[in-house]
């Protein structure tokens, strides 16, 4: 269907000005829907990649990044998400690595310093208990050999009383404070030690000509002649052990980064895949294909978006079908109205021209011509009134007053109107209304029109000698009414179509036998407007039964 087609209906002249205005309003209201349904955005056309099996990564802007056969652009959400996660992982691991390394440094050297302090306490105990200098130095050699460090005992004169390890074996060496290489202490250090403080030093020692970790601690009991205990451990083996720890940490971090990069790529592709699927579905919808659906495997926001897109696709498909049905109905409506109007106009034109040409030979023939013209005018008037009433009912613009309606009174009025017509047609018309039937809630005029249309339809389709029975009886809080005839019946394939405008199940009916073709359509709309329903049962050669339900009480909403 297209906008051009609908506009042609309006511009064809078959509509009145009021109908033309209504149709123009319809076109304006549905313009956006039609635009959505039929517009193809050429900007979304993509050039297919000829060989998608190549692998590799190109990092230049605008080039395709190809991983495992799938194409990703640097500005695609897959790449952006992957790079963002990878950058975040790198930053977290980098900061964590720096903090961890620095903390490891401090903890490791603090543990070594504590171990040296513990060794210093044992040496102080040896200095207090061992009076034999040779034995003391032998024990110091044993301790320093196990610990692979240097142990010094500084006497009260600030001289080296004993020393073992790291090639410093001299004893009773007096310190030269101007030349601090004799002992690795300064005046400031000696002052702190005299106050009972423990000194921990890490760095380059000119005394040992290497990097050391040193601990100096005062001896509280100086009766042995010892004043200060100093223990020095070379940093090279300690740094080697620490470097091994750092290498292990580094490789662990690298492995974590590689694993995180792979996982982030997998995760980003998993997140982006439904988005790419949704993009393909959206492009298909833009080209008019509403059968495509996105496979939803999650219940997160992406899954909700996919469900929304699927719902939109279904709704647009239904909208398209609805617009196509509306287009078909409008075309049929225009064709039927044109035919129904053209025939009486042609007849009237023929009789009028005959009168103008004085073809009528006598007064009786002239009156016959005028009666035919009057009948066609009445037919046109009924047709126009039926069309207007049907449109008003469908659009909810048919104003009527609702009240409680006595079906016995309505049935009596209708029976009186159709008695003469039924007798003239040789048909037995009977009304059987249950006295317990309560009043129904609605418009008396519209309910009476339902009776008129159904009984008129039954009389026109029932041959002479047939019967028409109208019954009404209560059913729960509703009233069921039936109009049953013994007429020709309706073929099963025609039953679903009898409610359509201008539809005629009996194609052999002449214009004189038929109505406007809108009676049953009006009946159905009136019943539905009152909150009821109507059905039909028919068998060719046996007859037809129309059954409708009307409520006995008011509804919450009125149309």
UniProtKB/TrEMBL annotation:
HAMP domain location: 269-321
InterPro entries documented for this protein: HAMP_dom (IPR003660), HATPase_C_sf (IPR036890), HATPase_dom (IPR003594), His_kinase_dom (IPR005467), HisK_dim/P_dom (IPR003661), HisK_dim/P_sf (IPR036097), Sensor_HK_Regulatory (IPR050736), Sig_transdc_His_kin-like_C (IPR004358)
SMART domains from the UniProt entry: HAMP, HATPase_c, HisKA
EC number from the UniProt entry: 2.7.13.3
One Gene Ontology CC term in the entry: membrane
Molecular function terms, GO-annotated: phosphorelay sensor kinase activity
Superkingdom of this protein's organism: Bacteria
Chain ranges passing through the membrane: 81-99, 247-268
Domain Histidine kinase positions: 336-554
Entry keywords, A to Z: Coiled coil, Kinase, Membrane, Phosphoprotein, Transferase, Transmembrane, Transmembrane helix, Two-component regulatory system
Cell compartments where the protein resides: Membrane
Catalytic activity: ATP + protein L-histidine = ADP + protein N-phospho-L-histidine
Residues of the signal peptide: none
Coiled coil: 306-336
Main subcellular location: membrane
Name under which the protein is recorded: histidine kinase
